[in-house]
Amino acid sequence: MTSSRMASTGLVLFTLFLGGCSSMKTGAQRVDEGALAKAKTFAVVVAPQDKVPMDPALREFLGTRIAPAIVAAMTAKGYAEAPEESADVVVATQAFIGVADVGAIRWNPTVVGWYPWGPVSTGFYASSSVGKEISFVIDVGDLEAQKLFWRGWAAGAAELGAQHDPKKVRRLVDAVLADLPKAKS
Is the predicted pLDDT of residue 182 greater than 90, yes or no? Predict the structure, then answer.
């Protein structure tokens, strides 16, 4: 009963997040612009459950609603979708309930390795706290080389029920990916 109550709480809190309200703050960090400039193809993944403790409903939402919006936004920027094994970059998404300080999840250049769910050997993503603030992250990087090229995020709270409006989901993803450079022809 506790886990189902927690799952519904997590989903309700995430629905608060997706409205695109003025309280949502977005940002981006370019880590390796030169490597990103060579990318032409991408694959979208959701952070694995064993790496990022995430409410199952939240994880499903990222896979069924956010991932298609990411595909549309990346395609609009001139990138082509490809299977994960052959894609130039992996576009990974994750969300955290109760993490209001996006500064805590920014890439630290001193960390050597990167996976689509965050830097290796850090605890940035191990938050199981439940709160009113949500952080939503999209990473673009090379999984094989374990290098992060670009990170975009949104943090804050937003209106209830926005997850049912594909336009609001798309607006959120577009805002997070706004600073991502277009693919070079």
Answer: yes
Which residues neighbour 84 within 8 Å (Cβ) at sequence distance 6 or greater?
A: 43, 45, 90, 143
| pLDDT score of 83 more than 70 | yes
Upper half-sphere CA count for residue 170 (Cβ side, 13 Å): 10
| Inter-residue contact 153 to 176 (CB < 8 Å) | yes
What's the pLDDT at 27?
87
119: Cα within 13 Å, side-chain hemisphere = 17
Residue 146 DSSP SS3: coil
Q: How far apart are CA 89 and CA 129, in angstroms?
A: 30
Residues facing residue 133 across a β-bridge? none
Half-sphere exposure of 60 (CA within 13 A, CB side): 7
Q: Compute the mean pLDDT over every residue in the chain, rounded to the nearest whole number.
A: 74
pLDDT of residue 113: 55
CA distance 176 to 25: 9
